[in-house]
Amino acid sequence: MKRIYQLIFLLLIGLPTMAQIRTQPSQAAPSLKVNGSSLDYFNPKEYVIGGTTLSGAKYLIEDVIITLSKLTKGERIVLPGEATSNAIKNLWAQGLFDDVQLNITKIDLDTVYFDIQVVERPRLSAFEILGVSKSQKTDLNEKLADKAGRTIINDNLYNTTKSIIKKYMYDKGFFYTTIDFKSKPDPNQENSVILQVDINKGKRVKVHEIKFTGNKEFSSAKLRKYLKKTKQQAFYKIFGSGKFNKEKYEEDKLKLVAKMQEKGYRDAAILKDSIYRYSDKAIGIKLDLYEGPKYYFGNITWIGNARYPTDYLEKVFGIEKGEVFSEEKLEKKLRGSASGDDVSSVYLNDGYLTFNIDPVQTKIHNDTVDVEMRIYEGPQYTNNKITVVGNTITNDRVVLREIRTKPGDKFSKELLVRSVREIGALGNFDESKTNPIPKPNPSDGTVDIEYHVEEKPSDQIELSGGFGGGRVIGTLGLTFNNFSLKNLFNGEAYRPLPKGDGQKLSLRGQTNGKYYQSYSFSFSEPWFGGKKPVSFGLSAFTSLQSNGLSAADGNYQKIRLNGVSVSLGRKLNWPDNWFSLVHTINLNQYILNKYPGYLFSTGTSYNLNLTQEIARDSRNNNIFPTGGSYIRFTIQATPPYSLLNKINYATASDKQRYKFTEYHKWKFEAQWFESVVGKLVFKGQAQFGFLGQYNKAVGQSAFERFKLGGDGMQGFDFLQGSELIAMRGYSNNSVVPVGANVNIAQSSGSPIFSKYVMELRYPVIAKQEATAFVTAFAEGGNTWNKFSDFNPFNIRRSVGVGAKIFLPIFGLLGIDYGYGFDKIPGLPDANKGQFHFSIAQQLGGFN
User: Are 821 and 827 in contact (CB under 8 A)?
Assistant: First the structure.
């Protein structure tokens, strides 16, 4: 009987060790070994630990491992007993070893000595990620960076790595990602491996269906429209048919609730949402909604307003009792209007810099919300110091003269915003980084305003080759937009030319050899004299086109144009301060020698004219406007020579008739920009031009006509006495009057034109380095020889798509494809699909 009890006791003592053995990897079963000593398993005895050593460890700290085993010197232990099996169990739990063995090296009376023998697991030196794109690989390496670099390879590492990768791919729309691991020794580090992570991301899932529950007032179709970036699949969705993106989905949920609240359902919320597997390539989304009741504005009261009476603020506020309650609309009317017609802007434009208004919902009864507008007006501030920071090239005075917030004036938010626009219009600074910082001084009621700017490249170069007239044309153009004339002889100011005074210098040359040459120069100073916004401009050009023969050859043909112009302009404050007025005197000389296509082929003609131009430009951005308008009206006229001299033009020779060109020319252009949805922008444009005559006996002018069609770029027609009007979908200069001589009309142009454009624009890049946008357009236009034939609705039509990119060094570059619907008699290929390229064209204006 006594031996039976001893056997049971032995089994109980051995069970923990046996259990531990069963939970360890099969390749290394732990055990307790006794070297040179014996234990009486039937008579457990208490011992004192005389010391513990660690064998086989190269990288681990011995004291730490011994502490984890709890077999520390001086501790008492019962052998045989659970302490030894627990020591092995504790060490296995760390996940640091491939094998753990515990040895008793010596027993001296009641003192026992242990040795822990281990085999360390290898360490991770780096990940090698396979199966994903370069950008995804970079992202994953960043997310796993804290794992690489001597981390122990164990199950925890595998599980954590899998979790991180799968979550990342899930957020990208890859729901069914699988991951395999392989390891290979790192030849550069001992006991280290490189972990290969082979990712099979599968197909990016699409949203097959979006279901809603709990919606009564909102239809499921309406709710799906509120999810702007999470769309379910449909056969008619050719572009963007519902690919899932977790980040965009989370944004859409917030916008969905905001839209419901905007409609008066202020308690609206998403109670629960779930994403479920629909197929191997698609998922479904289910959203459980709570709409709640629809609320309306109740009593709206105002307290704290002393500067403006309540009835005036109510008029500006514009929300009346009984309207559908919307916190978004409330906020917009108080301080968030893009057009500046909110309550806060009224105060901020009147100097109340520290103004604040707090709309408090004082009472909610049934479906009505009473709101109390609690106003803090604060003191009225006056501008003090106005400074500019960050202009490393442009002189302070060039920036400060454009700023509308002047010292001594009342602070005005409207003028602050306008100043930012005017700084951007200089073209020398990154508009997105222009930041005005008001610094109030409450002690004296003044405010210092510091405009932070960042210079950007503003000079432009045009270097291009083209094909025209059957020959290759080379063009070189240089534009320096921040030129400094006064430092022309200051060698230290060259970068590579003297800069910083906001002047503009342009040089341009174009040639294909002996057949065509054209050179132009222009200089402009926006603040002539430096004290008032009076602009000064000077330009000159010379252009020669010939048939390439020697001048002594009897068949030699040429046309030479020489010209110079001087202009003065100024900004106006009436009717408002968006207007400007420019006066220009032009003198052009035309020399023709047997040159066809004009009303006379040989002779010299002079064109002295005065141009008056009035314009209003309220576009909010010169490169990619999203709002505002541009209107320009121009009158250009020569002296009425035929009414002042005594020449009988009925019998006059071409030399007499055309020596002094006479005409009056009227032009009008209007552009309008409006944001439609999101970043999508609509542009509407209308243009009209009319060339009139003083004396019917003289007839129409041989020059200054309009050529419609094509890209509007200056090629062989550069300054040949005609204005080039772009119209996509038709070849260059091909839109000629019905019944006109095609060759003459294409060469000399037409006296009347009209053109209309509707265009949708969408930005794809909006950065300092570049601005790019895609377009879809519809255009219509036509030309006429007589005003009696003019019909603004009788137009040639076209549609197309295009893309444009603005690079600071090159200006605006573009490519368009247009298709014209209407045939041009005599030009059978004029309206067929046309590609149009544009280089360094103006961003606005008559082209």
Answer: no
Q: What is the C-alpha separation between 493 and 482, in angstroms, rounded?
A: 12
DSSP state of 304: S
Contact partners, residue 708, CB within 8 Å, separation at least 6: 725, 727, 730, 733, 735, 750, 753, 755, 781, 782, 783
Please give the distance of CA 446 from its chain centroid, rounded to a whole number.
36
Residue 33: the pLDDT is: 59
Residue 316 half-sphere exposure toward CB, CA atoms < 13 A? 20
Q: What is the pLDDT of residue 838?
A: 79
Confidence at residue 4, expressed as pLDDT on a 0 to 100 scale: 46
Q: What's the pLDDT at 812? A: 82
- What is the reported pLDDT for 367? 94
> Strand 356-365 and strand 368-376: pairing?
antiparallel
Please report the DSSP string for 313-380 in residue order: HHHHH---TTSBP-HHHHHIIIII-TTS-SHHHHHHTTT-TT-EEEEEEEEEETTEEEEEEEEE--PP
pTM of the predicted protein model: 0.72
3-class SS letters over 387-426: EEECCCCCCHHHHHCCCCCCCCCECCHHHHHHHHHHHHHC
Residue ranges with strand state E in 512-626: 516-525, 534-546, 558-571, 579-593, 603-617
What is the Cβ-side half-sphere exposure of residue 84, based on CA atoms within 13 angstroms? 29
The 3 state secondary structure assigned to 158-224 is HHHHHHHHHHHHHHCCCCCCEEEEEEEECCCCCCEEEEEEEEECCCCCEEEEEEEECCCCCCHHHHH
C-alpha distances in angstroms, 380 versus 298, 383, 442, 832?
A: 32, 10, 10, 64
Segment holding 156, helix H or strand E: helix 155-171
Mean pLDDT calculated for residue range 696-718: 79
Write the pLDDT tens digit of every residue in 768-784. 678 899 999 999 999 99
Q: Within 13 Å of residue 160, how many CA atoms lie on the same side as its CB? A: 13
Cα-to-chain-centroid distance, residue 596: 49
